[in-house]
Write a structure and sequence with these properties.
Layout (H helix, E strand, L loop, with lengths): L1 H15 L10 E8 L2 E7 L5 E6 L3 E3 L4 E5 L4 E5 L6 E5 L4 E6 L5 E8 L2 E8 L5 E7 L4 E2 L5 E6 L2 E6 L4 E4 L9 E2 L6 E4 L5 E4 L7 E2 L8 E9 L5 E9 L22 E6 L5 E3 L6 E8 L5 E8 L8 E6 L5 E6 L1 E7 L1
Antiparallel strand pairs: 1-2, 1-28, 2-3, 4-5, 5-6, 6-7, 8-9, 9-10, 10-11, 12-13, 13-14, 14-15, 16-17, 17-18, 18-19, 20-21, 21-22, 22-23, 24-25, 25-26, 26-27
Amino acid sequence: MRRLRWLLLLVILTACHAAPAAPASPQLYALHREAADWALVRVAPSGELTPLLAEVDAFAPGPTFAVVLDVGWTVALWEGAGAPRAIAQCTAACHAVTWSANGEWLAWLEGDAQGGALWAWERASGRVQLLGEALTAPMWSPVGATLAFGAAEGLTFWEAESATFTRMPFTTATPPSWDPAGGRVAVVLGGHEVVFASPGVPFPQPLLLEIAAGAVWTEGVAWSPDGAYLALLQRRFNPPPHDHDEPTDDRQGSETLGAQPWLYDMTTGTLTPLPGDPGAVFAQPRWSPDGAQVAVTRIPIGVVGGAPEVWLFDAATGVRQAVFEGLAAPAWGP
């Protein structure tokens, strides 16, 4: 009997000190082109696609999937099984859906690539409210529920809990990207200059990039979740020499037709080009939650019927790890 009691005690102690289950690895999701429609898929490291939901025009992983259906006319929630539940009907194409870090708020744009009406949905009340007009996609802070977006009035921050706006006196050319602490955002100004801005601070801090020659247009910026890097999308121009009396088109000196991916190391200040494609434009950089990888959409230029691809890079080495054909709009989630 005594031996049995010791055995039971050993089992109990072993159970109490068992190692916790390893957290699930972050999953890469994307839209897959299927005939005339897009479908939401999960992407395995091997490139194998798991179909999840058909006829999806935009999505955002979160506590549940937020999806845009009906060719952009319906915003819905999807639990991963069954039918999506509509939460809003749009009068123009809806896109740029995004969840707050606490999963209590959802925001999206109703318009086109140049912006549109910005809406927010509150989970607790189910209320949908109009926040005004936005010129860029909205981005939630990784801490709490503060929404940042570009507007005609300037860079704007909206505090969801207090329903208050803070506007900065400068306009942005790209969606803002938050630092991991949620204290400031990286944005690109109209002159294609990358700056850091904080709510309530009137003057942004420029990011000093050393460019050897020519002009640079930065068309996108994304801060890694670990704060180590900025992913930049840049076009670089090196106009050929010419007689000033003769007209010229400086675009003839462009190194590339579309924006290419770069990594800026926040510690060393090093700007490193990632493997790109001069005949394509790159868009939508999306970081893995651990900051180890960045996924970027590649869109061919001047190719009839050319399909998009998602390229996956290793942040530490800059090596392209994978190419996923026929995919766009990558996003990471559970």
